[in-house]
From TrEMBL:
Record's keyword annotation contains Cell cycle: no
Organism: Actinophytocola glycyrrhizae
InterPro entries linked to this entry: NMT1/THI5, SsuA/THI5
Pfam families per the UniProt record, alphabetical: NMT1
The protein's name: ABC transporter substrate-binding protein
Length: 339
């Protein structure tokens, strides 16, 4: 990966100030971690897209290095696989969606969330804007693409029910996650289930067509989104390191949403196979409201009520087994409202 800059490039950035916008992000600006730093692996939920820009920005601005962490980011292949990698100690931390985390824990995987950052779920029904859909009810008689096994697919019937519809009102077309964008663009379906802040800008970039969406969260069904996952053993045996990683990640998000263009540039410098820079900026800007900073106070700060609501929805609509209290799935002791 292009995770670390060369010494010459790093020096050039330091001379330039490391913050092109002119704002002081509060980090050391040391891209290279100190020699005695702890190497930490962090696996994403998917291949890099704009939601991940804060992590690369945190590396470039020195937020992780300031906590004594040498962060190595790896792409993912779905939240479920990332959670499994954490459970099997193949990676120390993961970035994953909450519904598959609940299912993983219920199946016995020894993992927990230490903070969900996208607190307003990004799950949506996406479509080309010329379709003109204004509510879930407008999907009656339409073809909607979804991927069996993901949380959106599992809770889609509940979304329909919350809007006075039944499964018979919509034709759900099963499709692989990697093909949904192409099939929507080609008109094989009228809409797809997906994360609007990721796929929307990507579709627009590839097709030149405007994309619109209907959020599950605005249509009666809000589920907590993506956040940090860690293994139970790491959580108990390396509590201080977990706290440092969470703190650096909170700062990375807080500063990245203030400077989305700079965060996108950091990702272009340090990631591989990322979308075009302008797409990254748009994806990150769309993610910012999902942090719900007005109520959370800082990125990644959750409440028991939020967790209980998501657990309840999953239990009622997605066959969540062995349902427990929020503490079974989440340890909020490392996140603080002051960041």
């Amino acid at each position: 990966m292009k995770r670390l800059l060369t010494g010459i490039a790093a020096a050039a950035l330091l001379v330039a100030g490391c913050a092109p916008s002119g704002q002081d992000s509060g980090g050391s600006g040391d891209t290279e971690a100190p020699a005695d730093a702890t190497e930490v692996t962090f696996t994403l939920n998917w291949v890099p897209y704009g939601e991940h820009a804060p992590f690369y920005y945190g590396i470039q601005e020195g937020f992780y290095a300031d906590e004594g962490i040498d962060l190595k980011i790896e792409p993912g292949s779905g939240s479920g696989n990332t959670i499994k990698a954490v459970a099997q100690n193949q990676t120390m931390f993961g970035w994953a969606d909450t519904p598959p985390l609940l299912n993983a824990i219920s199946s016995g995987m020894p993992v927990k969330s230490v903070g969900v950052f996208l607190q307003k779920g990004p799950s949506s029904v996406e479509f080309l804007a010329d379709k003109g859909f204004e509510s879930i009810k407008d999907l009656k008689g339409k073809r909607v693409g979804g991927t069996p096994g993901d949380a959106m697919y599992a809770t889609f019937p509940a979304l329909l029910a919350a809007n006075g519809m039944t499964e018979a009102d919509v034709t759900v077309v099963n499709m692989d996650a990697a093909n949904k964008i192409a099939q929507l663009a080609e008109g094989q379906v009228d809409a797809i289930m997906g994360f609007f802040h990721d796929q929307g800008p990507t579709i627009e970039s590839r097709t030149g067509k405007e994309v619109d969406h209907l959020l599950f969260a605005d249509s009666g069904l809000n589920l907590l989104g993506t956040g940090i996952v860690v293994g139970d053993e790491t959580l108990s045996s390396q509590k201080e390191l977990v706290g440092k990683f969470v703190r650096a990640t909170q700062k990375s998000w807080a500063e990245a949403v203030k400077n989305p263009e700079d965060a996108a540039k950091a990702m272009v410098d340090l990631a591989e196979n990322e979308p075009p820079e302008e797409v990254l900026v748009e994806q990150l800007k769309l993610a910012e409201p999902l942090l719900q900073l007005d109520t959370a106070g800082a990125p990644g700060v959750n409440t028991e009520e939020q967790w209980a609501d998501t657990i309840g929805i999953m239990a009622a609509n997605a066959e969540l087994k062995d349902v427990g209290e929020p503490s079974k799935y989440w340890d909020g002791s490392h996140t603080k409202a002051n960041g």
